[in-house]
Design brief:
single chain; mainly alpha; 12 helices; disordered C terminus
Length: about 325
């Protein structure tokens, strides 16, 4: 009975992973820049990596099923579909194994965890999916041979951004607990951050890409006040607005060729993700250190108070003073 229950749970998590991957892919494909399959933000990679951390490595078949379902609808050929699905499965699995090997903690206790996610989970592991996927499209004739590196860079960036923006949001979200006594001012502050980030990003894309830097004060504010739970949603909003604006040729991206457009998006999205992730992690680590110092000081004060109540502090001090000895043959007065 226990074994059956274990297998049933495993099958359930596979289904959850497959459905989550498919839904995330449908959302990501709406902002494709190269053909119908390559987008500068590919949420399924982040969803897949988060599922592996939440449900275990045995859920990888669910990722494969989700990838096959998505690419089967897009084509172009069966070998290409299989090759792309293979890359979409292997890349998050390799990212998971690499992060586990170096002791990555999904609650982001330190800056080291954030850097491990950036360099191992996003930049290194996603080379696999970008390479296999782009090669498959070139062999199928969907992408011309001379466009390999352009398509590859978009694919790699999209997968990396999915890991940096989506995976931490899911992993951090599982541990968020809404306090019973929620301050109205706190809610208002959070709403201002979310709405402000959206309004500034939309305004910037409607005028000039040079104004996109105006979202960074909101990201830093969110990181300082709400840590990852506030910084990551704001970062995702800013990146999504920029990607949609580029895909729909908003004024900030009008007249730019694909290469220039991708360089702008890559620089902006990478800066947004790193600012939110690293600044929030550093702020949280600093706050925990400060809280530990405050707790230690409180315990020390309580210890001193207990000692002073048990024996007068002055007596303790007097008793610890060395007695002054008199020279031999001298009478005391």
């Amino acid at each position: 009975m226990g074994r059956f229950r274990s297998h049933a749970e495993q099958a359930l998590w596979m289904v959850v992973a497959a459905v989550a991957y498919f839904v995330a892919a449908e959302v990501g494909l709406r902002s494709a820049l190269v053909g119908d399959q390559i987008t500068p933000l590919w949420p399924p990679t982040g969803v897949a990596l988060a599922c592996l951390f939440l449900f275990g490595l045995r859920t990888w078949p669910g990722i494969t099923i989700g990838a096959l379902a998505v690419n089967a609808l897009l084509g172009p050929t069966l070998p290409a579909v299989l090759m792309i699905a293979l890359g979409n499965t292997v890349a998050p699995v390799v990212a998971y194994l690499l992060l586990k090997r170096v002791g990555f903690r999904s609650d982001f206790d330190s800056v080291r965890d954030a850097l491990e996610l950036v360099f191992l989970g996003a930049l290194a592991a996603m080379l696999i999916s970008a390479t296999l996927g782009t090669v498959a499209l070139v062999l199928a004739g969907t992408v011309p041979a001379h466009g390999f590196w352009g398509a590859w860079s978009v694919w790699w960036t999209g997968d990396a951004m999915g890991v940096l923006l989506i995976a931490p949001l899911i992993l951090v979200g599982k541990s968020i607990r809404i306090p019973k006594a929620l301050s109205p001012l706190r809610v208002i502050e959070a709403a201002i951050l979310v709405v402000g980030t959206f309004v500034v990003a939309v305004t910037a894309t409607a005028v000039s890409a040079n104004l996109l830097f105006l979202v960074f004060p909101f990201l830093i504010w969110a990181a300082m006040r709400f840590h990852l739970s506030g910084a990551l949603p704001c970062a995702l909003i800013a990146s999504t607005v920029a990607i949609v604006a580029a895909a729909r040729d908003f004024p900030a991206f009008t007249g730019l060729d694909l290469t220039t457009k991708m360089i702008t998006l890559q620089a902006f999205n990478g800066s947004v993700a790193l600012t939110a992730l690293l600044h929030a992690t550093m702020t949280a680590q600093r706050d925990r250190a400060r809280q530990a110092v405050d707790d230690t000081c409180s315990q020390l004060a309580q210890t001193v108070l207990t000692i002073s109540q048990g024996r007068p502090l002055a007596g303790v001090i007097d008793s610890t003073r060395p007695r002054r000895t008199q020279p031999p043959g001298t009478a005391s007065t």
